[in-house]
Design goal:
eight-stranded mixed beta sheet, DUF4232 domain-containing protein
């Protein structure tokens, strides 16, 4: 598996999961993305703050096992892969990360939506991330997980985030749940476990997903920059 994850690889896994429920019909993209907050419901947690986990933080990797990285990464001064031999820096903890979706850099096709999942260092020291986050849909005020977690494509270089710097992971959201007769559920958003962490952040994303079949999400490794869609 190449370090630079391609959009084709991200898309293929989620689309294959959707086909288990029903064949995806051709037509509009039907991404189900709505950036507005859920009416009458308080957020599960502010973006970037910890929420109680309801499942394995790592999700499912393409090799069948989670691959969190908790080793001491290397330091640089920006959101770039750390050079060999650089001084040691700590893993970026969830408490010092703001997790968002970069909709302005995303796009959609007939199979779903491609969005950068952005991690911004809100702390006062440089820290590092490596590999793929854990991602799942959640619903209700208690953040109940809906369906299976995202398929993860782990690996990649360690990325150092200076204070205020950001990196992103390519997230694919299949549109199959909007176009099949599965058991549909209204999700409130995403539970995201940054790489190497067991504390999660909540990202608002009201949409329709399925509690059966799937996975309907795939996510790649964190890379430098805020516009990584897997292209």
């Amino acid at each position: 598996m190449s370090t630079a994850l391609t959009r084709t690889a991200l898309t293929r896994t989620a689309v294959a999961g959707g086909a288990i429920v029903a064949a995806v019909t051709l037509g509009g993209c039907g991404s189900g993305i709505d950036g507005s907050a859920t009416p009458g419901a308080a957020p599960i947690a502010d973006t970037g703050t910890s929420v109680p986990p309801s499942s394995s933080p790592a999700g499912t990797s393409v090799a069948g096992t989670p691959v969190p990285d908790t080793s001491a990464p290397a330091t640089s001064t920006s959101s770039t892969p750390a050079p060999d031999g650089a001084a040691s820096a700590a893993l970026c903890p969830t408490a010092y990360l703001r997790v968002t979706l970069n909709r302005s850099a995303g796009d959609a096709d007939m199979q779903g939506s491609h969005l950068p999942l952005v991690f911004t260092n809100t702390g006062s020291r440089s820290c590092t991330l490596r590999s793929a986050p854990g991602v799942s849909y959640v619903s209700g005020n208690g953040g109940q997980q809906v369906g299976v977690p995202a398929t993860r494509y782990p690996g990649g270089a360690k990325v150092t985030l200076a204070p205020g710097a950001s990196a992103s992971a390519a997230l694919f959201l299949s549109s199959a749940p909007q176009k099949s007769d599965c058991h549909q559920v209204q999700a409130r958003g995403l539970r995201v476990y940054p790489p190497g962490n067991t504390g999660a952040a909540f990202v608002p994303l009201p949409t329709t997903t399925c509690s059966d079949g799937g996975p309907y999400l795939t996510v790649g490794s964190v890379r430098a920059g805020v516009a990584n869609t897997g292209a």
